[in-house]
Amino acid sequence: MNINKLRGTGVALVTPFHKDGNIDFKSFKKLIERCIDQKVEYLVPLGTTGESVTLTRDEKRAVLDFVVEVNDKRVPVVLGLGGNNTQELVNMIEECDFEGVDALLSVSPYYNRPSQRGIFQHYKSIANASPVPVILYNVPARTGSNIDAETTLELAHEIKNIVGIKEASGNLEKVMRILKGKPKDFLVISGDDALTLPLIACGGDGVISVIANAYPKDFSEMVRNAMEGNFDKARKLNFKLMEITHAIFVDGNPSGVKGLLSVMNICSEHVRLPLVSVGKATLNKFETMVKG
After folding, report:
1. pLDDT-based confidence at 1, cuts 50/70/90?
2. What is the CATH number of the domain that holds 234?
3. What average pLDDT does range 16-37 have in this prediction?
4. What are the residues whose beta carbons fall under 8 Å from the beta carbon of 83, sequence distance 6 or more?
5. Which of 27, 39, 86, 208 is geometrically suited to a Cys-Cys bond with 10, CB 3.0 to 4.6 A?
């Protein structure tokens, strides 16, 4: 695919649930249509925000099929598919139907805490197995390990099918080292809503966003303005969303954004254990912020 289609705002889609824990496909359709109508560049199902770790394999397939069907090729779809068992992940990729999927987002192995060489070999195996381009995902706060800038650049230069990284380390100096040394066509994507504007100012390519579930129009417009160099407009939109963007992460993700979406009547606040929904006080705070 043309990776320039992945420059801008991707939405890390939540997976809406009914109170009984089953997937709420009616609300899911509303969410997807709203994101597309309000001009996000692409959709990212089955990531962290989509609670993929508590979905069964059949549910994951149902979610992906549903997103692909509703989207109907209007925007690219980037599938979240990662794990800490490399061979099992390779098997899953080989068994997966990638019809309607444009790229793969794969989180760095968690819990095992592999060395940098292990991380390199893990991603090499994934890239060799994947029929679509692969985006690395570095989120040390969740995985317990960090993909060094040097490892990212080695993967970027040596493995053609690896086309970008979602960087959620919170380290802009590290991001700048990647931007300085990367191949021309390698994407550097923010994995942190709050740092998206400065990352783009450094030369980054956009964001895979949580807050864009709730504010797809404003957040994607902020990103587009920043990428076009219209930083006055971008800053105004960023400041407009800054407080609510912070608020949705206070009680954890995706509990926070689902609470916000419930206040906006887009989907329920329900999550699956071990996550729990935000409390009434937080919902009241969201109501005040939305009305304000």
Report:
1. confident
2. 3.20.20.70
3. 98
4. 89, 92, 107, 109
5. 208
What pLDDT sits at residue 209?
A: 98
- What pLDDT is attached to residue 292? 75
**DSSP letter (8 states) at residue 11:** E
Cβ-proximal residues to 281 (8 Å cutoff; 6+ apart), any chain: none
Could you tell me if residue 123 is inside a domain? yes
Looking at the structure of the chain, the number of domains it has is 1
Please check whether residue 257 is in contact with residue 212, taking contact to mean a CB–CB distance below 8 angstroms: no
CA distance 45 to 146: 23
Mean pLDDT score of the chain:
97
On whether residue 265 sits in a domain, the answer given is no
**Catalytic residues, which ones?**
137, 166
Q: Quick check: 173 pLDDT over 90?
A: yes
Half-sphere exposure of 223 (CA within 13 A, CB side): 31
The stretch 74-82 carries a mean pLDDT of 98
Tokens of 268: 């329920």
* 3 state DSSP class of 211: helix
- Which amino acid, one-letter code, is at 232? D
What is the pLDDT, as a whole number, of residue 216? Answer: 98
- Predicted confidence band at 161 (pLDDT cuts at 50, 70, 90)? very high
Nearest C-alpha neighbor of 81 from the set 113, 108, 41: 108
Residue numbers of the domain that contains 164: 3-239
DSSP state letter for 274: T
- Indicate whether 225 belongs to any domain: yes
- The three-class DSSP label of residue 44 is strand
Determine, yes or no, domain membership for 269.
no
Contact 255, 286 (CB under 8 A): no
The answer to whether 123 and 149 have CB atoms below 8 angstroms apart is: no
